[in-house]
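Cross-posted from the bioinformatics board.
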Amino acid sequence: MILSGHLPATSGIVEAQLAGVAAAPDRSPFIGHDHATLLRMLDD
Amino acid sequence: MIEPRPVHSDITVVPTFHELPGIGVLTINSFVLHAAQPVIVDTGTTADRDAMVAAIIEALGDTEPSWLWITHTDADHIGGVGRLLDRFPDLTMVTTYTGLVKIGTHAPVHPSRVRLLNPGESLDLGDRAITAITPPLFDAPETTGFHDPVSGALFSSDCFGAILPAGSRDIDQLDDDELLAAQTLWTSIDTPWVAKIDTALLTAELDALRPCPRP
């Protein structure tokens, strides 16, 4: 069991957890939203 | 309301859920390891401090905690440190020297209340010894998780997190593709430098965790 500070605690998904981190290097870093988008989201 | 729940006979998770507009849901967990010398692991945000401390005390039941393991000093992990040290006079915080220095910029903790423990070193809890580790990915230099040989659990600090889809509270609601997307989103947000590292080195670290025994 791998417990994280930021994942609902569970057991039995060790392989999925390893895969999730292993996949990250192929993903472009998250940059975030621009300010106008943020304001629209907060209005919703 | 924060509702502690057991994830193992020796481990209670104390979870909170935070909606991130336009992104999803971030889980912020504290834990109690019910060893002969009980361990509180992290303490939530300052905003949640009162409810989190109350929930941790509920999770402890009739036991007095011996150790307060701070995996790192980000604001979402140290909100309840002062309250818990005040509430339990014999409680000792566990961190690294970097962690002690950094937490001093937020809420100084007297060194007499601290056990410095570096990755690779062990802490005797009476019925077991837990071993400090540096997780494969982390977002603060003092980050120290640990392995509990009794439950087999690896407490990985911020590694292996996920940003859940809006409204979600449980990864069992997600299919495999959704779970993978949730994990890679978190990893890319929390450790953006991961895109710059040697994939082979990361893979080797992850492979080393694969035998991690299940409860």
